[in-house]
Every structure is written in C-alpha cells, then in structure tokens.
Design a protein that fits this description.
CATH topology of the largest domain: D-Maltodextrin-Binding Protein, domain 2
CATH superfamily of the largest domain: Periplasmic binding protein-like II
Radius of gyration: 36 Å
Distance between the termini: 106 Å
Largest sheet: 9 strands, mixed
Order of helices and strands: HEHEHEHEEHEHEHEEEHEHH
Number of domains: 2
Number of helices: 10
CATH architecture of the largest domain: 3-Layer(aba) Sandwich
Strand content: 15-25%
CATH class of the largest domain: Alpha Beta
C-alpha cells in the first residue's frame, strides 16, 4: 500500500514539475508576439509623424489666401509671381487687386490686404506702420509717340516740360507743336517716384492724369505730341522711350547708375504682426531664387 502511495506521489510530482517548467515557456512565447507588435506600431507612428513633418516643411500642406492690392505698375510682376507661387502651392489662392500705391499701403495698414504693393519708397508715416520688403528695382521710362523727332531729353528740360516752363517740342529738337503732358493720378506710386526724383512734387501741370500705366501708354501712342512716363517693364513698340541725360532706359544703364529715373518695387506688410504661414511663404518665395527669376523675366532688376 505504501508503495502504491509513493509511486502515485512520485507521478504527481513529475506531472507538476512538467507543468511548472512548461508554463513559463508558454507565457514567454505568448508575450513575444505582443511585444513585437508594440514595437512595430511605435515604428509606424514615428514614420507617419516624420512624413507629416516632411510634408509641412516642403509646403505641400500649405493652404489659405494671400490678398494683395496697390500699384498698377506692379500688376504684371505681381501676377507673374502669383502664378509661379500657386503652381508650387496649389492649395493657396493669391489675389491681386490694383488701385495705386497709396491705396495698397492703406489696405495693408487697415488689414484689408495682407500685402500692399508700392512702386515708390515708403513715406515716414507709412514706414511707422508698415514693413517694406523691396522685391525689385524698376526704371521709369519717359515715353513719346514713335513719330516724334525728339529722341532724348535732359533731367533739367524734363522738369521744365512737366512744370509748364517748356511747352513746345521745337525747343527740344522736335516739331513745332504744343507738348501734351500726360501723367498718373495723385495716388500713383509711379507719379510719386517720378516727381520726387525730379524734385517737382505738386508742381506739375498735366493735360491728362490717368489711373493706369496702360492708359498712359495708350494715350501717348495715340497722341503724336504727347509725353508721358511708365514703368520700364511696360515698354513696347507702340511708344518710344527717350534717353534721359544721355542714358537709355535699360536695366544695364540703371545698374551702372547712368539712368537717373529708377525706383523700388515694394511689398509692404503691417508692422508688428505675425504673418499667416501662407503669406510668409509667399514673401519668402518672392525673395528667393525662384521668385527673383520671375522678377528678372519681367524686365526688372533683382535684389537678391
């Protein structure tokens, strides 16, 4: 009887021993897949976070609207920059409105526009409220009808023409006909820069004051005795640009300091405000290599 009990006890011990050895192994085996899945999930989460950060850094996640208004002289380059930027950032809409430099600066200060475009230096009171970003340098071309015999003018004579002291083309090497003096409206950055460069602010005697660069060019091209001024990039074969002080209205002459009539193209933003990501990205693009290539393509002088 004792032998049977002893054998039974021995068998039970062997069974328990076997169970005791196998149970931890089974636990370890079942834990391994769980730990592996956790590691894989963490790696996946990290990869997704990295991809998301990469998309944001590359601009792919950029969206919103950039509102610009102001200088009509900057219309062509502003629209060209808009198209180039939107091609890289299709979820951002850039809106370009006109109205003249003073209007654009007022819009930027009031918050109506994100960016105010000005084709002249900012005045002291404007600089107090706005940060000006010079994106390009432009020349102001003095234009006449292609049939005009006069081909050049001095700065001194240009002052006399626009202040009404010289009134006939015969005094400037042209035909005997009264000069029709054409300019821009009072809020125009082109007018402001032109008059400031010549020192004739509020002294000009205009026969016509027009509100767009294109309108000035059209008026001069259809009026044989007219004289006007437009942005250098607006020149075409419908008008003739006079030499000023012996220098042609070209980028090379402006860079060399020979041509006297040049001014900055400025994009202004409200001082002290943190720009929305899409607005900051647009300004960064304009000042970067791609944006400055667009500036050069539009016959303007680059600044970086």
């Amino acid at each position: 009887m004792k032998k049977i009990i002893t054998i039974t006890a021995l068998v039970l011990c062997m069974v328990f021993a076997a169970i005791g050895c196998s149970a931890p192994a089974a636990q370890e085996s079942s834990a391994a897949p769980s730990e592996s899945a956790s590691v894989e999930a963490s790696a996946s989460d990290a990869a997704e976070a990295t991809a998301s950060a990469s998309e944001e850094a590359s601009g792919e996640a950029l969206s919103g609207t950039v509102a610009m208004s102001g200088s009509t002289s900057m219309e062509q380059v502003a629209n060209a920059l808009k198209e180039a930027f939107m091609a890289k950032n299709p979820d951002v809409s850039v809106d370009v409105q006109l109205g003249g430099s003073s209007v654009g600066l007022q819009d930027a200060e009031s918050g109506k526009s994100d960016i105010g475009n000005a084709s002249r230096e900012l005045k002291d009171e404007e600089s107090a409220a706005l940060d000006g970003h010079t994106i390009a340098i432009d020349g102001i071309a003095v234009i006449v009808h292609p049939s005009n015999a006069a081909k050049e003018i001095t700065s001194e004579d240009l002052v006399k023409v626009y202040t009404g002291e010289v009134t006939n083309w015969k005094d400037l090497g042209g035909d005997d006909q009264p000069i029709v003096v054409i300019g821009r409206e009072a809020s125009s950055g082109t007018r402001g820069a032109f008059e400031e460069l010549l020192g004739i602010e509020d002294q000009c005697k205009y026969a016509q004051e027009l509100n767009e660069t294109g309108a000035v060019k059209t008026a001069v091209s259809s009026t044989p005795a007219a004289i006007g001024y437009v942005s250098l990039e607006a020149l075409d074969d419908t008008v003739t640009a006079l030499k000023v002080d012996g220098a042609e209205a070209t980028e090379e002459a402006i860079k060399a300091g020979d041509y006297p009539l040049s001014r900055p193209f400025i994009m202004a933003t409200k001082k002290g405000e943190t720009l929305r990501p899409e607005v900051q990205a647009f300004l960064d693009f304009v000042m970067g290599a791609d944006g400055q290539a667009v500036v050069a393509d539009n016959k303007l002088i680059t600044v970086s």
